Amino acid sequence: MSLLTDKATTHTDPSSLASGAAVPDVSRGARKTSFDVADFPVPHGREEDWRFTPVDRLSGLFTDHPTDGLGTGSEAASVTVQAPDEVLVSTLAPGDAPRGTALVPADRAAVVASAQTEKALHLTIPAEAELAEPVRLTVTGHGAGRRSNGHCVIEAKHHSKAMVIVTHEGSADHTGNLEVIVGDGADLTVVTLQQWDDDANHLGQHDALVGNSATYKHIAVTLGGAIVRINSNVRYAGSGGDATLLGVYFADAGQHLEHRSFVDHNAPHCTSHVTYKGALQGQSAHTVWVGDVLIRAEAEGIETYEQNRNLVLTDGARADSVPNLEIETGEIIGAGHASSTGRFDDEQLFYLQARGIPERDARRLVVRGFFADVVSKIRVPEVVDAVMEAIEIELSQATE
Q1: What's the pLDDT score for residue 67?
Q2: Where in this chain does the record put each SUF system FeS cluster assembly SufBD core domain (predicted)?
């Protein structure tokens, strides 16, 4: 019997935070995963996993029909790879190891992407290699409504150290799987940037398998796209693994930005920390964060914490935030979660204005401060600069 605990520190603004953050009636670990498209009917929006997502606008992404995979000359989207000489670049057909080791599709979009990608891109960081420069993978959409599927496998061999930056740009209707295997003692950071044009749609599943005493960091930065939904999931292949999931997002009028995470503590003496922060402005701007942590009976001595903060800058915006913590053993170091959603702090604004700072500049300072702690954890100068520049652009469009 599992013990569902609630250690959330929650401060909500009823006008911006939706109700109904109920504990799911099925354990997160019991949900279906499969490589068979038939196992996942087209969602209708009433399912637990899809209840926040505007599925009526995504019918084309659920259709199981052949499309060219990324990197095969597709008219819908193309991929480029820039990598240090040490990195091995190849492809994997379905069933070719290690494809399918870390990622088994967990929803309709992911299973279609898997089934319709004949050759997955395979990036291998050799054992004990320490890359001086990041691996850069860029997915470029070539037109609104053009359909693309993709699957990429990143394999960091034992005791290697590397960073992979995945950038999404242009426009397309894209479903993309990202499969990450972190070998024993390896240290891998994956940064995924969603910088799509305003008419792009993107559904993605990012799964990682973290080895013994390995370190994994996943950083999701979502600023562009009409509808973007990223599932970031972690499980462990041995004891002593450490996983950090960070997210930054900024939604404008009409945008739907959704982030879901699932940390499956299936091994002892592992740690996980999840921190997502988002801001919203404009009519019908909508963000969703759902964070699931499962601590299995065998996961003794683990420590985990997840939190989500949302800042609502204007009327008409909505943030849904749902943390879930499921515990099957009491032999742990610590576990908790926190969620808060609120409006702009008028007291902070007044404090800054009282010291001669114009209102527009004061607003920017408060929002920059809101994002500062999570952005600083990214520790990739070029990514930090790009994120803060994008936030400045978003703030310049804010309604006074």
Answers
A1: 56
A2: 144-370
Domain ranges in the chain are: 3-345
Could you tell me how far CA 73 lies from the centroid of its own chain? 27
Quote the pLDDT of residue 4.
Answer: 31
**What's the pLDDT at 90?**
97
The Cα 175–Cα 205 span in angstroms is 8
CB atoms within 10 A of CB 49: 16
Write the DSSP symbol of residue 41.
P
Q: In 3D, which of 274, 244, 139 has the Cα closest to residue 182?
A: 244
* pTM to 2 decimal places: 0.90
Return the residue matching tokens 């006074």.
Answer: 400
Is residue 162 within 8 A of residue 351, CB to CB? The reply is no
Q: How far is the CA of 354 from the CAs of 76, 360, 362, 396, in angstroms?
A: 52, 13, 10, 22
229 is written with which tokens? 């939904």
Contact yes or no for 394/250 (Cβ under 8 A):
yes
Quote the pLDDT of residue 25.
59
Cα 280 to Cα 17: distance, rounded to the nearest angstrom: 12
**Are 298 and 327 within 8 A, CB to CB?**
no
Report the C-alpha gap between 315 and 325 in whole angstroms: 31
For the purposes of burial, counting CB atoms within 10 Å of the CB of 148, is it exposed (0-12), middle (13-18) or buried (19 or more)?
buried
Alpha-carbon distance of 148 to 32, in angstroms, equals 24
Terminus-to-terminus CA distance in the chain, angstroms? 52
Task: Give me the DSSP letters along 256-284.
Answer: EEEEEEEEEE-SSS-EEEEEEEEEE-STT
Please state, in angstroms and rounded to a whole number, the distance separating the CA atoms of residues 181 and 172. 27
- State the residue for tokens 């061999």: 157
CB 376 within 8 A of CB 384: yes
- Give the number of C-alpha atoms closer than 13 A to the C-alpha of residue 70, restricted to the C-beta side: 32
Which residue intervals of 287-380 are DSSP H helices? 346-353, 359-376
Question: How do strand 334-343 and strand 3-4 relate by DSSP bridges?
Answer: unpaired
pLDDT < 70 regions, the chain? 1-25, 66-74, 397-400
**Secondary structure of 148-187 as H, E, C letters:** EEEEEEEEECCCCEEEEEEEEEEEEEEEEEEEEEECCCCE
Q: Are 368 and 388 in contact (CB under 8 A)?
A: yes
Task: State the pLDDT at residue 115.
Answer: 95
Q: Tell which phi-psi region holds residue 225, choosing left (phi > 0), alpha (psi between -120 and 50) or beta.
A: left
